[in-house]
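Researcher: Next sequence.
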Amino acid sequence: MNIHEYQAKQIFQKYGVPTPRGIIATTVDEAVKAAEELGGEVWVVKAQIHAGGRGLGGGVKLAKSIDEAKELADEILGMTLVTHQTGPEGKLVNKVYIEEGANIEDELYLSVVLDRAAEMPIIMASTEGGMDIETVAEKTPEKIIKIAIDPAFGFQGYHGRELVFGLGITDKNLQKKMMQFAAKLYKLYMENDAEMIEINPLIRTAEGDYMALDGKMGFDDSALGRHPDIEAMRDISEEDADEREASKYGLSYIALDGEIGCMVNGAGLAMGTMDTINYMGGTPANFLDVGGSANAETVAKAFEIILKNPKVKAIFVNIFGGIVRCDRIANGILEATKMVDVNVPVIVRLDGTNAAEAAVILDNAHIDNVISATDLGDGAKKAVEAAKGVK
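Model: Next structure:
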Protein backbone atom coordinates (compact mmCIF):
# COMPACT_ATOMS: atom_id res chain seq x y z
CA MET A 1 0.00 0.00 0.00
CA ASN A 2 1.28 3.47 -0.91
CA ILE A 3 0.39 6.76 0.73
CA HIS A 4 0.57 10.42 -0.28
CA GLU A 5 3.47 12.74 0.43
CA TYR A 6 1.55 14.71 3.07
CA GLN A 7 0.70 11.46 4.87
CA ALA A 8 4.31 10.29 4.77
CA LYS A 9 5.35 13.58 6.32
CA GLN A 10 2.82 13.12 9.12
CA ILE A 11 4.57 9.87 9.98
CA PHE A 12 8.00 11.52 9.60
CA GLN A 13 7.03 14.13 12.16
CA LYS A 14 6.04 11.45 14.70
CA TYR A 15 9.60 10.14 14.54
CA GLY A 16 11.27 13.53 14.67
CA VAL A 17 12.25 13.54 10.99
CA PRO A 18 12.24 17.26 10.05
CA THR A 19 9.90 18.43 7.27
CA PRO A 20 8.64 21.84 6.15
CA ARG A 21 5.24 22.83 7.53
CA GLY A 22 2.35 22.12 5.21
CA ILE A 23 -1.44 21.83 5.02
CA ILE A 24 -3.52 19.60 2.73
CA ALA A 25 -6.29 21.18 0.62
CA THR A 26 -9.01 19.74 -1.59
CA THR A 27 -10.42 23.06 -2.86
CA VAL A 28 -8.98 26.38 -4.00
CA ASP A 29 -10.45 28.15 -0.99
CA GLU A 30 -8.80 25.65 1.34
CA ALA A 31 -5.49 26.19 -0.48
CA VAL A 32 -5.70 29.96 0.01
CA LYS A 33 -6.58 29.53 3.68
CA ALA A 34 -3.62 27.13 4.09
CA ALA A 35 -1.17 29.62 2.56
CA GLU A 36 -2.46 32.37 4.81
CA GLU A 37 -2.20 30.14 7.88
CA LEU A 38 1.36 29.10 7.07
CA GLY A 39 2.41 32.70 6.51
CA GLY A 40 5.64 33.78 4.86
CA GLU A 41 6.30 35.02 1.36
CA VAL A 42 6.82 31.79 -0.60
CA TRP A 43 4.71 28.63 -0.82
CA VAL A 44 4.92 25.43 -2.84
CA VAL A 45 1.72 24.00 -4.32
CA LYS A 46 2.12 20.22 -4.71
CA ALA A 47 -0.21 17.79 -6.45
CA GLN A 48 -0.87 14.70 -4.33
CA ILE A 49 -0.89 11.51 -6.39
CA HIS A 50 0.78 8.14 -5.95
CA ALA A 51 3.52 8.72 -8.50
CA GLY A 52 6.94 10.30 -8.81
CA GLY A 53 8.03 12.93 -11.31
CA ARG A 54 5.28 15.35 -10.30
CA GLY A 55 7.49 18.40 -10.72
CA LEU A 56 8.46 17.55 -14.30
CA GLY A 57 4.79 16.94 -15.10
CA GLY A 58 3.75 20.39 -13.85
CA GLY A 59 2.34 19.22 -10.54
CA VAL A 60 4.74 21.09 -8.22
CA LYS A 61 4.92 24.87 -8.54
CA LEU A 62 6.24 27.83 -6.55
CA ALA A 63 3.95 30.69 -5.52
CA LYS A 64 5.30 34.08 -4.40
CA SER A 65 1.98 35.60 -3.38
CA ILE A 66 -1.40 34.49 -2.03
CA ASP A 67 -2.99 35.34 -5.38
CA GLU A 68 -0.44 33.20 -7.20
CA ALA A 69 -1.02 30.33 -4.76
CA LYS A 70 -4.73 30.60 -5.54
CA GLU A 71 -4.09 30.53 -9.31
CA LEU A 72 -1.76 27.53 -9.07
CA ALA A 73 -4.13 25.57 -6.82
CA ASP A 74 -6.93 26.23 -9.32
CA GLU A 75 -4.65 25.06 -12.13
CA ILE A 76 -3.44 21.88 -10.44
CA LEU A 77 -6.63 20.71 -8.73
CA GLY A 78 -8.65 18.66 -11.21
CA MET A 79 -5.81 18.33 -13.73
CA THR A 80 -4.79 14.96 -15.13
CA LEU A 81 -1.12 14.78 -14.20
CA VAL A 82 1.06 12.68 -16.49
CA THR A 83 4.49 11.58 -15.25
CA HIS A 84 6.92 8.79 -16.17
CA GLN A 85 5.32 6.70 -13.40
CA THR A 86 1.63 7.26 -14.20
CA GLY A 87 1.73 6.13 -17.81
CA PRO A 88 0.18 8.15 -20.65
CA GLU A 89 -3.28 8.03 -19.06
CA GLY A 90 -2.06 10.08 -16.07
CA LYS A 91 -3.80 10.52 -12.71
CA LEU A 92 -6.48 12.93 -11.60
CA VAL A 93 -5.35 15.39 -8.92
CA ASN A 94 -7.90 15.65 -6.10
CA LYS A 95 -5.65 17.17 -3.43
CA VAL A 96 -2.84 19.70 -3.20
CA TYR A 97 -0.35 20.13 -0.40
CA ILE A 98 0.46 23.74 0.42
CA GLU A 99 3.92 23.88 1.94
CA GLU A 100 6.07 26.69 3.26
CA GLY A 101 9.14 27.62 1.25
CA ALA A 102 12.62 26.50 2.32
CA ASN A 103 16.02 28.15 2.01
CA ILE A 104 17.76 25.36 0.07
CA GLU A 105 21.55 25.13 0.22
CA ASP A 106 22.01 21.58 -1.10
CA GLU A 107 19.93 18.63 -2.32
CA LEU A 108 20.57 14.95 -1.57
CA TYR A 109 18.76 11.66 -2.13
CA LEU A 110 18.01 9.26 0.74
CA SER A 111 15.91 6.10 0.93
CA VAL A 112 15.43 2.91 2.90
CA VAL A 113 14.39 -0.08 0.80
CA LEU A 114 14.45 -3.87 0.98
CA ASP A 115 17.35 -5.51 -0.85
CA ARG A 116 16.02 -8.98 -1.65
CA ALA A 117 19.44 -10.25 -2.74
CA ALA A 118 21.05 -9.17 0.55
CA GLU A 119 17.87 -10.21 2.43
CA MET A 120 17.96 -7.09 4.56
CA PRO A 121 17.07 -3.39 4.39
CA ILE A 122 19.54 -1.01 2.79
CA ILE A 123 20.01 2.72 3.09
CA MET A 124 20.53 4.16 -0.36
CA ALA A 125 21.87 7.68 -0.75
CA SER A 126 23.29 10.00 -3.38
CA THR A 127 24.58 13.52 -3.76
CA GLU A 128 22.33 13.79 -6.84
CA GLY A 129 19.21 14.89 -4.98
CA GLY A 130 16.23 16.09 -6.99
CA MET A 131 17.10 13.86 -9.94
CA ASP A 132 15.38 10.67 -11.06
CA ILE A 133 17.35 8.00 -9.19
CA GLU A 134 16.93 5.54 -12.08
CA THR A 135 18.74 8.01 -14.35
CA VAL A 136 21.53 8.42 -11.79
CA ALA A 137 21.85 4.62 -11.51
CA GLU A 138 22.11 4.32 -15.30
CA LYS A 139 24.49 7.18 -16.03
CA THR A 140 26.54 7.64 -12.85
CA PRO A 141 26.08 4.54 -10.66
CA GLU A 142 29.19 5.40 -8.68
CA LYS A 143 27.25 8.29 -7.14
CA ILE A 144 24.84 5.92 -5.36
CA ILE A 145 25.79 4.65 -1.89
CA LYS A 146 24.24 1.41 -0.62
CA ILE A 147 24.55 0.43 3.03
CA ALA A 148 23.06 -2.92 4.12
CA ILE A 149 21.72 -3.06 7.69
CA ASP A 150 21.25 -6.38 9.46
CA PRO A 151 17.95 -6.14 11.38
CA ALA A 152 19.50 -8.21 14.19
CA PHE A 153 21.85 -5.29 14.97
CA GLY A 154 19.92 -2.32 13.59
CA PHE A 155 21.37 1.04 12.60
CA GLN A 156 24.81 1.50 14.18
CA GLY A 157 27.35 4.30 14.30
CA TYR A 158 29.51 2.69 11.64
CA HIS A 159 26.52 2.72 9.25
CA GLY A 160 26.18 6.46 9.88
CA ARG A 161 29.87 7.09 9.30
CA GLU A 162 29.79 5.14 6.04
CA LEU A 163 26.83 7.27 4.97
CA VAL A 164 28.30 10.71 5.76
CA PHE A 165 31.72 9.86 4.33
CA GLY A 166 30.08 8.50 1.16
CA LEU A 167 28.12 11.75 0.77
CA GLY A 168 31.26 13.81 1.29
CA ILE A 169 29.97 15.53 4.45
CA THR A 170 33.01 16.81 6.34
CA ASP A 171 31.50 19.25 8.84
CA LYS A 172 31.25 17.49 12.24
CA ASN A 173 27.93 19.12 13.12
CA LEU A 174 26.36 18.21 9.78
CA GLN A 175 27.71 14.67 10.07
CA LYS A 176 25.97 14.28 13.42
CA LYS A 177 22.69 15.66 12.07
CA MET A 178 22.75 13.38 9.01
CA MET A 179 23.50 10.30 11.13
CA GLN A 180 20.60 11.15 13.46
CA PHE A 181 18.32 11.75 10.46
CA ALA A 182 19.18 8.36 8.91
CA ALA A 183 18.79 6.54 12.26
CA LYS A 184 15.28 7.94 12.70
CA LEU A 185 14.34 6.99 9.16
CA TYR A 186 15.54 3.41 9.65
CA LYS A 187 13.59 3.13 12.92
CA LEU A 188 10.47 4.44 11.16
CA TYR A 189 10.97 1.90 8.36
CA MET A 190 11.27 -1.09 10.69
CA GLU A 191 8.56 -0.19 13.21
CA ASN A 192 5.92 0.42 10.53
CA ASP A 193 6.62 -2.59 8.28
CA ALA A 194 7.47 -0.27 5.41
CA GLU A 195 8.66 -1.64 2.09
CA MET A 196 10.11 1.64 0.89
CA ILE A 197 10.83 5.15 2.14
CA GLU A 198 12.20 7.66 -0.34
CA ILE A 199 13.14 11.30 0.20
CA ASN A 200 14.03 13.10 -3.00
CA PRO A 201 15.22 15.65 -2.35
CA LEU A 202 16.53 15.64 1.17
CA ILE A 203 17.68 19.24 1.55
CA ARG A 204 20.26 21.03 3.63
CA THR A 205 19.00 24.48 4.47
CA ALA A 206 21.10 27.62 4.66
CA GLU A 207 20.57 27.42 8.42
CA GLY A 208 22.43 24.09 8.48
CA ASP A 209 19.52 21.68 8.99
CA TYR A 210 18.52 18.56 7.05
CA MET A 211 14.88 18.37 6.02
CA ALA A 212 12.66 16.02 4.00
CA LEU A 213 11.40 18.21 1.18
CA ASP A 214 9.57 15.24 -0.35
CA GLY A 215 8.41 11.89 0.98
CA LYS A 216 7.24 8.60 -0.51
CA MET A 217 6.27 5.55 1.50
CA GLY A 218 5.02 2.08 0.64
CA PHE A 219 3.99 -0.63 3.11
CA ASP A 220 3.76 -4.41 3.24
CA ASP A 221 0.07 -5.16 2.66
CA SER A 222 0.33 -8.35 4.71
CA ALA A 223 1.37 -6.35 7.80
CA LEU A 224 -1.35 -3.70 7.68
CA GLY A 225 -3.35 -5.54 10.33
CA ARG A 226 -0.69 -4.43 12.80
CA HIS A 227 -1.01 -0.80 11.71
CA PRO A 228 -4.68 0.28 11.54
CA ASP A 229 -3.59 3.93 11.64
CA ILE A 230 -1.60 3.46 8.45
CA GLU A 231 -4.28 1.34 6.78
CA ALA A 232 -6.72 4.21 7.44
CA MET A 233 -4.52 6.36 5.16
CA ARG A 234 -5.38 4.23 2.14
CA ASP A 235 -6.67 6.28 -0.81
CA ILE A 236 -8.59 3.83 -2.99
CA SER A 237 -9.10 6.50 -5.66
CA GLU A 238 -5.36 6.14 -6.39
CA GLU A 239 -5.55 2.37 -6.84
CA ASP A 240 -6.50 0.34 -9.89
CA ALA A 241 -10.14 -0.77 -9.50
CA ASP A 242 -9.46 -4.21 -11.01
CA GLU A 243 -6.50 -4.78 -8.67
CA ARG A 244 -8.71 -3.90 -5.69
CA GLU A 245 -11.43 -6.28 -6.86
CA ALA A 246 -8.92 -9.07 -7.43
CA SER A 247 -7.55 -8.73 -3.91
CA LYS A 248 -11.04 -9.38 -2.49
CA TYR A 249 -10.90 -12.85 -4.04
CA GLY A 250 -7.32 -13.60 -2.98
CA LEU A 251 -5.98 -12.90 -6.47
CA SER A 252 -2.78 -10.98 -7.14
CA TYR A 253 -3.40 -8.87 -10.24
CA ILE A 254 -1.34 -6.20 -11.93
CA ALA A 255 -2.46 -4.65 -15.22
CA LEU A 256 0.12 -4.34 -18.00
CA ASP A 257 0.01 -2.96 -21.55
CA GLY A 258 0.01 -6.11 -23.71
CA GLU A 259 -2.63 -8.26 -25.37
CA ILE A 260 -2.22 -11.73 -23.81
CA GLY A 261 -3.94 -12.30 -20.49
CA CYS A 262 -1.96 -14.51 -18.11
CA MET A 263 -3.49 -16.72 -15.42
CA VAL A 264 -0.96 -18.65 -13.35
CA ASN A 265 -0.33 -19.93 -9.83
CA GLY A 266 2.80 -18.65 -8.16
CA ALA A 267 4.79 -15.45 -8.74
CA GLY A 268 7.79 -17.33 -10.12
CA LEU A 269 5.67 -19.12 -12.70
CA ALA A 270 3.99 -15.81 -13.54
CA MET A 271 7.35 -14.17 -14.30
CA GLY A 272 8.48 -17.18 -16.31
CA THR A 273 5.22 -17.17 -18.26
CA MET A 274 5.46 -13.48 -19.09
CA ASP A 275 9.11 -13.82 -20.10
CA THR A 276 8.28 -16.73 -22.39
CA ILE A 277 5.43 -14.82 -24.01
CA ASN A 278 7.83 -11.94 -24.67
CA TYR A 279 10.40 -14.38 -26.06
CA MET A 280 7.78 -15.78 -28.44
CA GLY A 281 7.02 -12.27 -29.74
CA GLY A 282 3.95 -11.46 -27.67
CA THR A 283 3.19 -8.99 -24.86
CA PRO A 284 1.52 -9.82 -21.51
CA ALA A 285 -1.64 -7.88 -20.66
CA ASN A 286 -1.41 -8.61 -16.96
CA PHE A 287 0.16 -10.49 -14.09
CA LEU A 288 -2.52 -12.61 -12.40
CA ASP A 289 -1.66 -15.17 -9.73
CA VAL A 290 -4.60 -17.29 -8.54
CA GLY A 291 -2.51 -18.46 -5.57
CA GLY A 292 -2.62 -21.75 -3.73
CA SER A 293 -6.30 -21.89 -2.81
CA ALA A 294 -7.98 -21.29 -6.16
CA ASN A 295 -11.41 -22.73 -6.79
CA ALA A 296 -13.99 -22.50 -9.55
CA GLU A 297 -15.31 -19.17 -8.27
CA THR A 298 -11.91 -17.46 -8.06
CA VAL A 299 -10.85 -18.75 -11.48
CA ALA A 300 -14.10 -17.46 -12.98
CA LYS A 301 -13.49 -14.08 -11.31
CA ALA A 302 -9.96 -14.08 -12.73
CA PHE A 303 -11.37 -14.50 -16.25
CA GLU A 304 -13.85 -11.71 -15.63
CA ILE A 305 -11.12 -9.31 -14.50
CA ILE A 306 -8.78 -10.18 -17.38
CA LEU A 307 -11.54 -9.73 -19.96
CA LYS A 308 -12.39 -6.25 -18.71
CA ASN A 309 -9.30 -5.16 -20.62
CA PRO A 310 -10.41 -4.56 -24.24
CA LYS A 311 -6.82 -5.05 -25.45
CA VAL A 312 -6.82 -8.74 -24.48
CA LYS A 313 -6.90 -10.93 -27.60
CA ALA A 314 -6.00 -14.27 -25.99
CA ILE A 315 -5.68 -15.78 -22.51
CA PHE A 316 -2.93 -18.19 -21.47
CA VAL A 317 -3.82 -20.33 -18.45
CA ASN A 318 -0.57 -21.88 -17.19
CA ILE A 319 -1.07 -23.88 -14.00
CA PHE A 320 1.32 -26.25 -12.29
CA GLY A 321 -0.82 -28.23 -9.89
CA GLY A 322 0.66 -28.65 -6.44
CA ILE A 323 -1.56 -27.26 -3.74
CA VAL A 324 -3.94 -26.11 -6.47
CA ARG A 325 -5.50 -29.10 -8.20
CA CYS A 326 -5.71 -28.90 -11.97
CA ASP A 327 -9.30 -30.22 -11.99
CA ARG A 328 -10.34 -27.18 -9.90
CA ILE A 329 -8.85 -24.92 -12.54
CA ALA A 330 -10.61 -26.84 -15.30
CA ASN A 331 -13.95 -26.51 -13.50
CA GLY A 332 -13.21 -22.81 -13.02
CA ILE A 333 -12.68 -22.41 -16.75
CA LEU A 334 -16.05 -24.06 -17.40
CA GLU A 335 -17.69 -21.85 -14.78
CA ALA A 336 -16.14 -18.79 -16.37
CA THR A 337 -17.64 -19.62 -19.76
CA LYS A 338 -21.07 -19.67 -18.08
CA MET A 339 -20.62 -16.45 -16.11
CA VAL A 340 -18.55 -14.39 -18.56
CA ASP A 341 -18.56 -13.98 -22.31
CA VAL A 342 -15.16 -15.53 -23.00
CA ASN A 343 -14.88 -14.26 -26.54
CA VAL A 344 -11.13 -14.76 -27.05
CA PRO A 345 -9.06 -17.93 -27.48
CA VAL A 346 -8.04 -19.56 -24.19
CA ILE A 347 -4.82 -21.57 -24.28
CA VAL A 348 -4.62 -24.01 -21.37
CA ARG A 349 -1.55 -25.76 -20.03
CA LEU A 350 -2.29 -27.79 -16.88
CA ASP A 351 0.34 -30.00 -15.30
CA GLY A 352 0.75 -31.65 -11.92
CA THR A 353 -1.93 -32.77 -9.45
CA ASN A 354 -5.03 -34.16 -11.22
CA ALA A 355 -3.84 -32.94 -14.63
CA ALA A 356 -5.31 -36.02 -16.34
CA GLU A 357 -8.70 -35.45 -14.72
CA ALA A 358 -8.58 -31.81 -15.79
CA ALA A 359 -7.90 -32.80 -19.40
CA VAL A 360 -10.95 -35.07 -19.38
CA ILE A 361 -13.13 -32.28 -17.93
CA LEU A 362 -12.09 -29.83 -20.66
CA ASP A 363 -12.30 -32.41 -23.48
CA ASN A 364 -15.83 -33.39 -22.47
CA ALA A 365 -16.91 -29.75 -22.33
CA HIS A 366 -16.29 -29.28 -26.08
CA ILE A 367 -15.59 -25.54 -25.79
CA ASP A 368 -14.54 -24.29 -29.22
CA ASN A 369 -12.16 -21.53 -28.16
CA VAL A 370 -10.25 -23.57 -25.53
CA ILE A 371 -6.92 -24.78 -26.93
CA SER A 372 -4.76 -27.34 -25.10
CA ALA A 373 -1.00 -26.94 -24.76
CA THR A 374 1.59 -29.54 -23.83
CA ASP A 375 4.10 -27.35 -22.01
CA LEU A 376 5.08 -23.73 -21.28
CA GLY A 377 6.78 -23.12 -24.62
CA ASP A 378 3.96 -24.68 -26.61
CA GLY A 379 1.36 -22.71 -24.65
CA ALA A 380 3.14 -19.39 -25.02
CA LYS A 381 3.60 -19.95 -28.75
CA LYS A 382 -0.08 -20.81 -29.24
CA ALA A 383 -1.14 -17.79 -27.16
CA VAL A 384 0.98 -15.43 -29.27
CA GLU A 385 -0.35 -16.95 -32.48
CA ALA A 386 -3.94 -16.71 -31.23
CA ALA A 387 -3.48 -13.06 -30.25
CA LYS A 388 -2.13 -12.33 -33.72
CA GLY A 389 -4.99 -14.20 -35.38
CA VAL A 390 -2.77 -16.99 -36.67
CA LYS A 391 -4.63 -20.30 -37.14
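Model: The longest strand covers residues 104-115. The domain at 1-20+103-238 is CATH 3.30.470.20 (D-amino Acid Aminotransferase; Chain A, domain 1).
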